[in-house]
């Protein structure tokens, strides 16, 4: 009898409290990909959806039964809207919802658009867009942000679902998608011929003077492939040699970048607080897009500066709520995880020496660093394909020295300590995309939620550390909590070129190591590095950490 009573109390507790606990939140997704448009078909969207579904299930523990996909002819407007409503009906307060659309898009900023759209709205093309003889019917068939998506998203928002919306289509910065890649752009004039409505093919009115509405949601974050006036790129089979994709299949440039990041989450948690925020994800996607040579700039809404509810700081898919997730395991590194190195055939002869170094391990795939010869140079290539460093006709000992230095930096970056508070680090010119040309000056923006002493260190491609801040005794003072600290033009791009790592540490108290390191420049394998490591692993000092990467390149001739 007592056992039955206890079970009854447990059921009542779950009924009363279960729906309020994000720890039991379910994850649902609707993924839409259209490659087979009647005009201007695309190579990537169906592959985008297939790869995204695999990533959600494998890396983010989505139940495959909760992932709905609509591909090609399935992706009519009626079906898309119906499935959105079905996802709402299948979810409850606190659940995480991922909505992903991949295909063609348009907006009022498209000079070739001939249908009436709300002044500050974009539109997504479903598959059933042909056969119309007038602009009004075509406009009604488009999935328009303000007219079609807003009502259902507002429903999710009011129902306290946590929604992440991603759209990979042209002009998607308003849809809530040189290197000569084809675009994910379809003009409405491609669908309605001129003969269908006489000579009345005039672009819609200019909208520069139309005030932009404030962000209307409290629980929704939106990430677009491009800004409201940019085309988004598609990577077809013919361009994969130049722009390798995650699975060697055609993809959207934005989606391929996003997939790479979602499949290697340890590069995203820049402040090491054990979760991946929307802001961290957006910044990483932007950086990787620019580094890979794509001109489109992914946009996030709400913007960081107009986000009173701090949606940007919330975690994607509720990643901080479930410590059993693989993402959490990846973020919380082992304290001595070695650096993964892959050697191509031209440098295999140094493998025996490297096997004797405990801080590195040789791998055959997914390395942290690939070492290879290219003509007279030896290249050190990062996990995402960027050239971290290069040496001209080096001795084997020089290659090994560089790898030892990278291994020590790797060890420093992955220090497994508790993140006691949050700190943010950005370049003061975020539009640069993390690319800095020889001679250009670089500044940084720092913000912390606790009064802190700051230590900002730059590690250049050859493994030389430079303490940027503090540079003198006047800078040995606490910065205020939640105030932006701007360090203008404190560094300049110069040789050696490659990948610079900027590490920011914030401490709640001042130590003697701060003064020892102040303004110093030293190799990673020097005694001063011991001082830095001692400071970082000091368990008696509360601390937080953030980092970013800068790609430095020489001036073109």
Give the SSE layout.
Elements lengths: L1 H16 L9 E7 L11 H15 L7 E5 L5 H14 L5 E7 L2 E3 L14 E3 L10 H7 L1 E2 H14 L3 E7 L19 H4 L28 E5 L9 E2 L15 E2 H10 L15 H14 L7 E3 L24 H6 L7 E5 L7 H4 L5 E3 L6 E6 L2 E6 L4 E6 L3 H18 L9 E5 L7 E3 L3 E8 L4 E7 L4 E6 L15 E8 L5 E10 L4 H6 L3 E3 L3 H10 L6 E11 L4
Parallel strand pairs: 1-2, 1-3, 3-7, 7-8, 12-13, 12-14, 18-25
Antiparallel strand pairs: 4-5, 5-6, 8-11, 9-10, 14-15, 15-16, 17-19, 19-22, 20-21, 20-23, 21-24, 23-25
Helix pairs in contact: 2-7, 3-5, 7-8
List keywords for this structure.
557 residues, alpha/beta, Rossmann fold, Immunoglobulin-like, 6-stranded mixed sheet, 25 strands, 25% helix, globular, disordered N terminus
Number of DSSP-assigned strands: 25
CATH architecture of the largest domain: 3-Layer(aba) Sandwich
Q: Major sheet, described briefly?
A: 6 strands, mixed
Helix content: 10-25%
Mean pLDDT: 81
Strands of the widest sheet, in order across it, are 2-1-3-7-8-11
Form type: globular
Question: What is the CATH class designation of the largest domain?
Answer: Alpha Beta
Structural class: alpha/beta
- Number of separate helices: 13
* Percent of sequence in beta strands: 15-25%
CATH topology of the largest domain: Rossmann fold
Contiguous runs where pLDDT drops below 50 for at least 5 residues: 1-22, 173-180, 188-211, 321-334
- What is the C-alpha radius of gyration, as a whole number of Å? 25 Å
Please give the domain count: 3
Distance, first to last CA: 86 Å
């Amino acid at each position: 009898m007592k056992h039955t009573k206890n079970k009854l109390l447990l059921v009542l507790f779950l009924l009363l409290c279960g729906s309020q606990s994000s720890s039991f939140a379910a994850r649902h997704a609707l993924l839409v990909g259209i490659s087979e448009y009647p005009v201007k078909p695309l190579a990537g969207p169906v592959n985008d959806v297939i790869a995204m579904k695999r990533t959600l299930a494998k890396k983010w523990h989505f139940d495959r039964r909760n992932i709905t996909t609509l591909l090609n002819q399935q992706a009519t407007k009626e079906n898309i809207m119906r499935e959105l409503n079905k996802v709402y009906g299948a979810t409850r307060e606190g659940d995480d919802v991922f909505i992903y659309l991949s295909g063609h898009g348009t907006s009022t900023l498209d000079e070739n658009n001939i249908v009436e759209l709300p002044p500050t709205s974009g539109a997504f093309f479903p598959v059933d867009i042909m056969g119309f003889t007038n602009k009004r019917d075509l406009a009604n068939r488009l999935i328009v942000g303000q007219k079609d998506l807003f009502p259902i998203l507002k429903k999710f928002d009011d129902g306290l679902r946590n929604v992440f919306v991603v759209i990979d289509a042209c002009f998607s910065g308003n849809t809530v998608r040189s290197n000569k890649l084809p675009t994910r752009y379809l003009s409405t004039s491609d669908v309605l011929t001129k003969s269908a409505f006489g000579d009345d093919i005039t672009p819609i009115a200019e909208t520069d003077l139309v005030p932009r509405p404030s962000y209307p949601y409290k629980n929704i974050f939106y990430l677009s492939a491009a800004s409201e006036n940019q085309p988004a790129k598609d990577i077809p089979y013919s361009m994969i040699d130049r722009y390798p994709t995650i699975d060697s299949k055609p993809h959207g440039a934005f989606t391929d970048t996003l997939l790479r990041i979602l499949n290697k989450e340890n590069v995203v948690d820049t402040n090491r607080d054990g979760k991946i925020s929307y802001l961290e994800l957006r910044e990483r996607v932007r950086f990787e897009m620019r580094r890979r040579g794509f001109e489109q700039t992914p946009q996030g809404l709400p913007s960081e500066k107009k986000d009173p509810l701090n949606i940007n700081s919330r975690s994607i898919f509720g990643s901080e709520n479930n410590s059993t997730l693989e993402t959490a395991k990846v973020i919380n590194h082992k304290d001595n995880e070695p650096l993964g190195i892959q050697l191509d055939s031209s440098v295999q002869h140094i493998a025996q020496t490297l096997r004797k170094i405990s801080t590195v391990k040789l791998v055959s795939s997914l390395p942290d660093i690939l070492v290879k010869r290219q003509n007279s140079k030896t290249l050190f290539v990062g996990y995402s394909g960027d050239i971290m460093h290069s040496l001209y006709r080096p001795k084997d000992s020089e290659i090994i020295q560089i790898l030892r230095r990278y291994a020590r930096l790797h060890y420093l970056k992955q220090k497994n300590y508790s993140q006691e508070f949050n700190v943010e680090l950005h370049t003061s010119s975020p539009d640069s995309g993390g690319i800095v040309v020889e001679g250009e000056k670089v500044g940084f923006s720092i913000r912390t939620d606790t009064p802190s002493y700051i230590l900002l260190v730059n590690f250049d491609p050859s493994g030389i550390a430079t303490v940027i801040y503090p540079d003198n005794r006047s800078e040995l003072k606490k910065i205020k909590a939640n105030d932006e600290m701007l360090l203008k033009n404190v560094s300049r791009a110069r040789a050696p070129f490659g990948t610079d790592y900027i590490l920011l540490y914030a401490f709640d108290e001042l130590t003697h190591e701060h003064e020892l390191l102040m303004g110093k420049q030293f190799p990673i394998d020097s005694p001063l590095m011991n001082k830095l490591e001692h400071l970082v692993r000091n368990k008696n000092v509360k601390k937080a950490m953030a980092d970013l990467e800068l790609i430095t390149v020489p001036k073109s001739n």
